[in-house]
Amino acid sequence: MPNTPPRHILRIDASMRRNGSVTRQLADTLIERLTTADSATGVTRRDLADNPPAFIDEAWIGANFTDADARSDAQKAVLARSDELIAELQAADTLVIATPVYNFGVPAALKAWIDLIARARVTFKYTENGPVGLLTGKRAIIVAASGGTKAGSEIDFATTYLKHVLGFIGIHDVQIIAADQLGQGADEKLAAAGDAIERLAA
């Protein structure tokens, strides 16, 4: 019977705070639990506060919509960062996105990351029946924190957006660990998030 290959986690940190970040602390706990459960699990960490992805521009769009075998060296260079980020995602079994809610949505650096990994003909394709995600067989865990926005509410354009985008590229197994509305009973919310991590990693 063939050996099961070791699992691999891609961790994305989107908080611009390196110290005192709730999402970083919760993600640390989550990763520790997941890797303790399977010591062979590898982890790749992409911290968006360090060298954040550049916003896409006209040159990027032109290169992206040029057939791969027709791209110039300059166009390949323009897409190099996107190719790198997509390769990290393709190699992972589990995606952990740790993000605060900024002004009801995701941080700009996380949106820039999404724009670079959501690429037609690479991570999704259009068919006669509509778009089809190509990153199947993966799961995602969103670790989110907010001061006043309730997760899943009509003013939450962060976790709901992330869940939609992940489904669009083929990742439908999405779980959310929310430490939301920390401005009201932070200790209780953090304890609940910790309990959710324990249940998920059990």
Question: What report would you give on this structure?
Answer:
The strands form 2 sheets. This protein has a 5-stranded parallel β-sheet with strand order 2-1-3-6-7, sandwiched between helices. It has a two-stranded antiparallel sheet with strand order 4-5. Helices cover 38% and strands 20% of the residues. It contains 7 helices and 7 strands. The model has no long low-confidence stretch (mean pLDDT 94). It is globular, with a radius of gyration of 18 Å.
Annotate the secondary structure layout.
Blueprint: E1 8-13, H1 22-37, E2 42-47, H2 58-64, H3 73-78, H4 80-91, E3 94-100, H5 108-117, E4 124-127, E5 130-133, E6 139-145, H6 159-168, E7 173-179, H7 186-201
Parallel strand pairs: 1-2, 1-3, 3-6, 6-7
Antiparallel strand pairs: 4-5
Helix pairs in contact: 1-7
- The 3D shape can be described as globular
What is the number of beta strands? Answer: 7
Output the structural class. alpha/beta
| CATH hierarchy, class | Alpha Beta
Please give the count of helices: 7
Name the CATH superfamily classification: Flavodoxin domain
**Amino-to-carboxy terminus distance:** 26 Å
Rounded radius of gyration (Å): 18 Å
- What fraction strand? 15-25%
Q: What's the domain count?
A: 1
Indicate the CATH architecture: 3-Layer(aba) Sandwich
The parts where pLDDT drops under 50 for at least 5 residues are none
The ordered string of helix (H) and strand (E) elements is EHEHHHEHEEEHEH
Q: What does the main sheet amount to?
A: 5 strands, parallel
Order of the strands making up the biggest sheet: 2-1-3-6-7
Residue-averaged pLDDT, rounded? 94
Helical content class: 25-40%
